[in-house]
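ESCALATION

Customer reports they have been waiting on this structure for their group meeting. Please prioritize. Original submission:
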Amino acid sequence: MRYAQGGGLTDAERTRRERLRLQAVERFQAGEKNAEVAAALRVSERSVERWRRAWREQGEAGVLSKGSPGRSKLSDAQVERLERELERAPLAHGWADQRWTLARIKTLIGRLFHVSYTVEGTWALLRRHSWSWQQPARRAIERDDDAVEVWKKETWPRVRASRRSAAPTSSSRTRLGSR
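Update from on-call: job pushed to the front of the queue and completed.
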């Protein structure tokens, strides 16, 4: 990852960096060298080289911020439709059971909107819209809760009882016969 916190820049940080690049452009136009610009703006020469190249190739537009890289690929209307489709359950979309996995939701997004997300991107989309993962209660239909409680109270204490060895043991490293 590029940033210590595992994410990108905030909007304020992105704006600050853009202002810095625009100051660098003013210095480029004044004829300053990369080392001078880097020292004045307190950035690396490598960054200044990158900014100068972008400015030379695309003009001022080359150094402007491209915006947040984490913006959603789906519109608000598409997100609402996705929510309605998720409420219909996986069976309605051709899966054999009632579990929505991230991979299935990713596939559903691709089918409905022809947009490709990664599994991680799918999870970020769900979190951004206050959705959470669901853990199904996996219990056998035949389960008898009363019988389980009886087993825990009566059988488990006997099974769990610590084993004692038949003969006493010694922790001594030396034995009489080993000399």
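Sent to customer with the following note: The helical segments are 11-29, 34-41, 45-58, 76-87, 102-113, 119-128, 145-160.
Escalation resolved.
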